[in-house]
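The records we work with from here on pair a chain with its fold. Each token is a code from a learned vocabulary of local backbone shapes. A record is reproduced here so that you can trace the correspondence yourselves:

_____
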Amino acid sequence: MPLTGRLSGVAAMAKSTNPFRYFDSSPEAIRLVVMMYVKFPRSLRNVEDLLAERGIGICHETVRLWWNRFGPMFASEIRRKRVQKMSAFSHWRWHFDEVYVKINGEMHYLWRAVDHEGEVLESCASRTRDKLAALKFAKKLMKRPGCAKAITTDGLRSCKAAMKELGNADRQEVGRWANNRAENSHLPFRRRERAMLRFRQMKTLQKFSSVHAAFHNHFNQDRHARSAICRARHAFL
């Protein structure tokens, strides 16, 4: 094959793998739009108005399209980098909790796990909060970050049964106020839920909760990933 033919084939392959190839906007602008909508409690039209002040003229439906298409991709990139950093450190304590979310008048539950610094480790939506739902979430949680020295839960018996089946009953700790870290982690999601006027499908809840957790962690202060010298230098700047 001639050299020009090989170069054109490589160029076509590189072009086909570009996720932004069908969009006229720059990838930086798309990242900014997705970040503003997912991170901050603003509606689609609020994000449209804020972008118009910055000279980016797009429709609110474009904001919806971009976050649905590129939000999971950006979240997976953030999550992959953070999991690689977290694997080098020992996990002291996890906080395990669930919160109810109403979808079309029906009660659903969003399971969430955070570490001792408020880092959202995993989230999972389910229709029930029985043993099977707790066990499914616990297995999903321990798949990526590993396991912790202690796991703090509330008094829900489904969590106790799931920890017993996984062999982590000796690591489980139950206290009345010991799980406030997980309770506080629901507040940013609750503010975002009110701005979106609630969810209409369970798959949308699962998709947005995972993307929102990744963006929330991206702006979180990582004490476990920074040395004491860097934290002290940042405090005096």
